[in-house]
Amino acid sequence: MDILITNARYAVTSNEKNEILENVSIGITDGKISYIGTDTPSAKKVYDAAGKLIAPGLINSHTHLGMTLLRGWSEGVNLQGFLELVWAAEGAIMDEATCELGTELGALEALLSGTTTTMDMYLNPVATHRGAVRVGLRHIAGPIFFDFPGLDGLQWEQRIERAHQWKDELAKIGGPYIPTYLMPHSTYTDSPENLTQVAQIAKEIGARIHLHVSETEAENTDVAQRYSKTPTEVCRDTGILDVPTIFGHGVHLSDSDMKIASSKGASVGHCPGSNLKLGSGLARFNDMRKAGIAVGLGTDSCASSNDLDMFSVMRMAAHVVALRQSPADVDLTSIVRAATIEAARAVGLADRVGSIEVGKEADLIAIDLQAAHLTPVHNVNALLVFAAGRGDVTDVWVAGDQVVDNRTSTKIDLAGLIKRVNERVKALDPLR
């Protein structure tokens, strides 16, 4: 074995039985989990997890990492007001180099808080992917599609060309394995004709699709006025749902939409923090799950939710269920799974990550339980959802590579990154 994690007080497996193991060791060989048990087989390196909880790395199923540079920029607004403020700021600074810089910062924030995989939709995906991989994140990205040139200035033909080049770009950059994705922004920024073309390309190159769907009631109304359909029906009728697709948000999916999504195998990235902050609504988490939809959790961007903390997302997801239904309807196991194995299923990685099982890639986090706010432990899932926080994460592995060691990145200098970020965002001063 390359690494043996020993003496873990708990291991939350998120396997099919939802086992929570005690006093366990986990072995890693060639980046994969090769042993789970109570023995201590020999290994090149030993990590003593005494007093710690080992969990699968958390998976953020919908975010925009580069927008860490706009944290706190647009406050006290709904989605439309948010977009107006953010697009102006992005237009001022978000060139290719700045997208890479913002994504480095976002990737580092994610990893330090226990998130090992992100579904990241943002401008200049080659640059963002390069930045995220540099920091050690499993970073799902893909070409972005708008009908109009947008902030990246690309014409539609250039977007199509970049879609065909995307697999080659991924191979050049390397990093932890990710599925191939194409990312049209939404059914209100991409016409049915263009969505049909994206779906065809996805079929040709074996890609999956990620887009915003039914984030607000205003979006549903807009799309209905244009096409006499819901956004989900537009996705169905344009062939988007003929390839594996994950909806961002899905706050206002109707019963019919859920049936369509389930029948087509579509999934949802549920972002309760952003939805609450922007007043977008309370997504029907349990109803989507009952319909057979894989639901992962996400943060959305730092410009709309202000951080990339998946622990707070788990907490808010539980609170939304309690508010929409009742506290008795909060299934803590399902909340933890929505940040781990169900999120992995939603993004197309369930065969590789999201649970602690032999053969899976070793995307793991260690949480220090030696803290006042984590004592005593009566219910491990309740501890993760309602008490633990990102500051409790001490160590992080991605495909067996320790990318966070004792709360410090092994890949990048935080002080240097902060200096570069603060210098770059001075360009926003004229917009204040």
Q: Count the E strands.
A: 18
The CATH homologous superfamily of the largest domain is termed: Metal-dependent hydrolases
The helical percent reads: 25-40%
Largest sheet: 9 strands, mixed
Kindly estimate the percentage of residues that lie in beta strands according to DSSP. Answer: 15-25%
3D architecture notes:
Helices cover 38% and strands 21% of the residues. The chain is α/β, with parallel strands linked by helices. It folds into two domains: 3-56 and 356-409, Urease, subunit C, domain 1 (Roll), CATH 2.30.40; 58-347, Metal-dependent hydrolases (TIM Barrel, Alpha-Beta Barrel). Strands 1, 2, 3, 4, 5, 15, 16, 17 and 18 form a nine-stranded mixed sheet that branches.
Describe the structure concisely for a colleague.
The protein has 432 residues and is an alpha/beta fold. It is built from 15 helices and 18 strands.
Break the fold down into its secondary structure elements and pairings:
Blueprint: E1 3-12, E2 20-29, E3 32-37, E4 45-48, E5 52-56, E6 58-63, H1 79-93, H2 96-112, E7 115-120, H3 125-135, E8 138-140, E9 144-145, H4 156-173, E10 181-184, H5 192-205, E11 208-213, H6 217-227, H7 231-237, E12 245-249, H8 255-264, E13 267-270, H9 272-277, H10 285-290, E14 295-297, H11 310-324, H12 332-338, H13 341-347, E15 364-368, H14 380-387, E16 393-398, E17 401-405, E18 408-409, H15 414-424
Parallel strand pairs: 1-4, 1-5, 6-7, 7-8, 9-10, 10-11, 11-12, 12-13, 13-14
Antiparallel strand pairs: 1-2, 2-3, 5-15, 15-16, 16-17, 17-18
Helix pairs in contact: 2-3, 2-15, 3-4, 11-12, 12-13, 12-14
